[in-house]
Design brief:
With 307 residues, this protein is an alpha+beta fold. The chain is built from 7 helices and 17 strands. The protein is globular, with a radius of gyration of 20 Å.
Amino acid sequence: MYIFFNGKVLDENENEAKISIRSKIVNYGMGVFEGIRAYWNEDDNELYAFKLEEHYRRFLQSAKVLNLKVDYDVEELVEITKNLLKKNECRQDTYIRPIAFKNDPVIGVNITDNTYDSVAIYTAPLGKYIDSAELRTKVSSWTRIADNMLPPRIKPCGGYINSVLASFEATSLGYDEAILLNRNGNVCEGPGENIFLYKNGFLQTPPASDDILEGITRAEIMRIAKEDFKLTVVEKSIARTELYNTDELFFTGTAMELAPIVEVDGIKVGSGKTGPITEKLRKSLTDITHGRDLRYKDSLTKVYGIK
């Protein structure tokens, strides 16, 4: 496999891209990343990258917060990514991971120096993120990090320890995934996913002010719900007990895509099965990401063809 590292396309198998054990990304987690998906459409003989420009805009915003110097704009990052996917001959559903990080071999938490700032991109095949078709979840004992602690609205590498601990707690107890609450006890999100409730005709999701990542898939689901299904979509703070009493519940995210939640803390959600609204939204998202819904082609970037 080939990777992009500091301006060059390198053969990963030949160990040409190296990070020192002294690097600040290793010692302190000083980096930011994105998760992007590209979907293979056999009928079109095309690989479609989903919301590529939007992901790279957020990537650069994250880098800015951590004073990371990225010498590429959105358009350049898009072209680098397309070329890398072609170089790796990706003709299956593929995950794309850009990362910008402090590569200084110096002890200390200072981030003012940009001399060693690095950018890398790699790709990997990725099908389903979690094998379970319907998720059993647990509200975590870990509290979600807050905006004035380690801002969850960007994607800092070190900040995902919070997600790791919550997910480990849930899976070690036999659940599929965790749900995190914020400092005020409001529902926040999953370790790597946004969350939606559907009840009485309203689709509800926590607002940005409740310490969530403003997810790109989240935004697309809100768009689909409003435009295609004429649903009322509300961003509001959600209490923990609302999870137990809602009609339908689901996660969204780049890796997770759209996954129904049928149980929280041992309590069935609705009928305990995937709800009809959840299923309709999931099918619509799948058709969009795979290039089958021509109305949403503006969400996709062709890798092998002309955009």
